[in-house]
Amino acid sequence: MEKQKYYVCIPAGEISQVRYGNNDDYTIYATTEEVTMLRAKLDNMDKAGLDTYVRAHVPIMLYHNDKSNDAYDDSMTKVFEMIYKLGDEQSRSHIEGMGVLGDNHM
């Protein structure tokens, strides 16, 4: 399958072929299947984010011992791994500069 150009905005959970506003945090080149996989990873991150929101309102649960925060961190790492794999040079360079993937992906 042929790869198409997409713009990804993680905070909005958006993947688009149309560049508008601030939706172009990262540029990737992906097949339809890869976009579907990235969409699932973004959805998982969104669900994990909602779980951390709920946990934040339970004062007896400690942050450092919370599976929902771990799940959110893990899902965000998976999103960045996929964007790094599919991204253009600028996207990969930005992710490298953030240091979110460690030395294994560089």
Structure overview:
The chain has helices at 32-56, 67-86, 89-98, and strands at 4-9, 14-16, 26-30. The chain has a three-stranded antiparallel β-sheet with strand order 2-1-3. The longest helix has 25 residues, at 32-56. Strand 1 and strand 2 (14-16) form a beta hairpin. It has a domain at 32-105. Helix 1 (32-56) runs antiparallel to helix 2 (67-86). It has 106 residues and is α+β, with helices and mostly antiparallel strands.
Summarize the structure.
This protein has helices at residues 32-56, 67-86, 89-98, and strands spanning 4-9, 14-16, 26-30.
Task: Spell out the blueprint of helices and strands.
Elements: E1 4-9, E2 14-16, E3 26-30, H1 32-56, H2 67-86, H3 89-98
Antiparallel strand pairs: 1-2, 1-3
**Can you list the strand order of the major beta sheet?**
2-1-3
Summarize the main sheet. 3 strands, antiparallel
Instruction: Tell me the distance between the termini.
Output: 27 Å
Helix content: 40-55%
Protein name: Hydrolase
Organism: Oceanobacillus profundus
Keywords: Hydrolase
GO molecular function, one term: hydrolase activity
Give short descriptive properties of this protein:
elongated; Hydrolase; hydrolase activity; 52% helix; 106 residues; hydrolase; alpha+beta
